[in-house]
């Protein structure tokens, strides 16, 4: 029974992170921490790294904190929460940074309907280079209007 609960907490956390990604992108990255996110929309430097990469560190600290709480205290469900956050971060990095932005040259030839829809939706978001007016959505739940056959 504990294994089932552990897995449900892990999967629930992964799905909640989709909402958190949307929320933090819309209200934090395009809000009071725009100073860190704006170079992702309009590159103003020659470095491979972006100030936007700081968000990866922020979420990694949150994930590690939950895992550490699971290891060091009675808070055993810190493990599945922390690992769910970490798994979402890995999936996000794979889809957003590797697949869409090609920070590593992988998956360049993916042309199925889902891949095309995700690329199209992200392109529409990056059409706006300013703080306002950028349509925000998650990685998994992209609006259906972007999926065309």
From TrEMBL:
Q: Does the keyword Electron transport apply?
A: no
Would the keyword Magnesium turn up in this protein's UniProt record? no
Q: Where are the transmembrane segments?
A: 6-23, 54-71, 77-95
Enumerate the GO terms in the molecular function aspect.
beta-carotene 3-hydroxylase activity
> Which UniProt key words apply to this protein?
Carotenoid biosynthesis, Membrane, Oxidoreductase, Transmembrane, Transmembrane helix
Q: Which GO terms describe its biological process?
A: carotene metabolic process; xanthophyll biosynthetic process
Query: Which branch of life, at top level?
Result: Bacteria
Family in the record: Belongs to the sterol desaturase family.
Supply the name of the protein: Beta-carotene 3-hydroxylase
């Amino acid at each position: 029974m504990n294994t089932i609960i552990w897995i449900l907490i892990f999967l629930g956390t992964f799905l909640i992170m989709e909402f958190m990604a949307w929320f933090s992108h819309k209200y934090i990255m395009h809000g009071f921490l725009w100073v860190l996110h704006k170079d992702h929309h309009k590159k103003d430097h020659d470095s491979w790294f972006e100030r936007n990469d700081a968000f990866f560190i922020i979420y990694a600290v949150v994930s590690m904190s939950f895992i550490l709480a699971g290891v060091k205290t009675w808070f055993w469900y810190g493990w599945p929460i922390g690992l769910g956050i970490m798994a979402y971060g890995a999936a996000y990095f794979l889809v957003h940074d590797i697949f869409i932005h090609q920070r590593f040259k992988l998956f360049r030839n993916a042309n199925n309907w889902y891949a095309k829809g995700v690329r199209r939706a992200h392109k529409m978001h990056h059409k706006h280079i300013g703080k306002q007016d950028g349509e925000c959505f998650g990685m998994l739940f992209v609006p259906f209007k972007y999926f065309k056959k």
